[in-house]
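protein under study:
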Amino acid sequence: MTVRTRVAPSPTGDPHVGTAYIALFNLCFARAHGGQFLLRIEDTDQTRSTPESEQAILDSLRWLGLTWDEGPDIGGDNGPYRQSERMDLYREHADQLVAAGNAFRCYRTAAELDALREARRAGGHSTALKPSDLRLADEEVAAREDRGDPYVIRLLVPEEEGVCVVRDMLRGDIELDWGMIDAQILLKSDGMPTYHLANVVDDHLMGITHVLRGEEWINSAPKHKLLYEYFKWDMPQLCHLPLLRNPDKSKLSKRKNPTSILYYERMGFLPEALINYLGRMGWSMPDEREKFTLSEMIDDFDIQRVSLGGPIFDREKLSWLNGMWLREDFDDEALADRLVDWAFNRDNLMRVLPHARQRMETLSDLAPLAGFLVSGILPLSEASFDSVKGDREAIIKVLQFALWRLEARREWTRDLIWDDMKGLADALDIKIKDLLAPLFIAIAGSSASFSVVDSMAMLGPDMSRARIRHAVEVLGGVSKKAAKRLDKEYMALGAL
């Protein structure tokens, strides 16, 4: 048997370090067994998926040194490798399940579903809806069908109590209560598949033998096992890797830790160091050394060396490891080359000079004018905002609202950022210059910089958002209570 693994990210935002972590372990497992590693794009969320996000995923993984044998950019014998291009396959397999009596059309409305869940809750049961909860009388089904009412296709799941045993490569047999498993939607009313159907169909048709994924998917494993049984397919071996965590042991999130690979690239971390650090997330080399290359990890890879304790993603530890790489693996010539490639290249200069030259009298003026564009997180303090009108709470509110608006921004251009900020200023009934004032400090560290909107366009979304989050924290942060209040105010502004 040829080992085949995959990673299947969704192109709905900045490329996530968690994606790189899962990709790394799938790649190492496949290569260690002389197998193949695939990349598949799960873009069935058509409202949030963008070609720009897909390209960022491909570029970021390649920047880290990860390569795949089949994928949307290089092709292969099992394509297409974008789910949006495989829709007929999902409909065909959903209809096959219905015809075999292993799935059913559900015409229940949203209001009816809410009432059913509330009834189960009132009866002391879980809110997992079973086929018996959802089925309508044959006459009612016929009436709704005649009216052309929308329907979804749901999975037939066991009604009775009992456990589903799922075999995991690291955890052994996992017992999961069937009572908590709902009649999962497989095909939505718009014809789009859910993750569960598309994932199983794609993994089978692409010949995936081992699925290494995050432990958040453990509770979905019974649904997947059931689908494999209904289709009479062999199920891949499952391995649920521990989730990356913040230093406070919570799930890794952008609220507490930058999660975008682009952020770490923009910060000046070496791809060799970042992939080395991700390799240490719950795994260790046989000799326990901390610094190793990707090829060394592949040579010594053993999935059984994964620890199930939640690995902590600590930026300080990453910085320390990155420093080791800089000092031990790069002479002056190599380091100079990396610096030029990273920030001091002609393309970057050509983006900066149209703004900086208006303020330059000597060549040496460029560094203080544009230094913030090749910096990481700026050394701000609360006093940095003394020149900004308004009290601390008002400044935090402006920064937080701007951050939320920019987090929703998918396309990142100067004009679109300006439209977002102007729309926010109008909604808050304040002058645009008053809204931009604290952003100047957050983004450039000074109000004397050139256009903050142009600066954000050049910095990119990951670094811009990270600096605004940092500014909010410098000013004291937002408590849970304050966050609820601000969120209510922000939502009251309506569509900006």
Q: What stands out?
A: Residues 261-345 form a domain with the Glutamyl-tRNA Synthetase; domain 2 fold (CATH 1.10.1160.10). The chain has a mean pLDDT of 94. The first strand starts at residue 4 and ends at 7. Strands lie at 4-7, 36-39, 103-106, 152-155, 163-168, 172-177, 185-187, 210-214, 237-241.
